[in-house]
Amino acid sequence: MAFAIEPGVWLVGRWGSGSETEGAMAFAIELSPHARDHVRQLRKREQRIIVDAITLHLAHQPDLPTQHRKKLQDNPLAPWELRVGDYLVFYDVSHESGTVIIVAVGRKHHNRLWIGSEEIDL
User: Fold this and answer.
1) Rounded-to-integer distance, Cα 34 and Cα 97, Å
2) 71 and 80 Cβ atoms separated by less than 8 Å
3) In this predicted structure, what is the pLDDT of residue 7?
4) CA-to-CA distance for 101 and 32, rounded, in angstroms?
5) CATH topology of domain 10-120
6) Which pLDDT band holds residue 74 (cuts at 50, 70, 90)?
7) Most buried of 2, 21, 33, 35, CB within 10 angstroms?
């Protein structure tokens, strides 16, 4: 697995055998420029927790709803959400290119969602 929060660098998840990943294609994971900015604003420990969760939960079968992943109703951010503690990772899946695109990372506090320094209406 490789990781960097720099432009043009991809997160790539490769995991061993397991019930969730058995026979499943490994997806490349790309952070959009906005998502990179969102992650960079976090403390290093939070960055690592979020990146580890992204790699663990989205490298295989990212469009299968689970306890941490859910398909969202129409919204301006993305069709999918990954919950990582108080953080929400918004993403899209391209099966044609085998890529998961992280479009935004925000922090939810009660009924308020903050992405970067902007509050987003839920």
Assistant:
1) 21
2) yes
3) 47
4) 7
5) YaeB-like fold (3.30.2310)
6) confident
7) 35
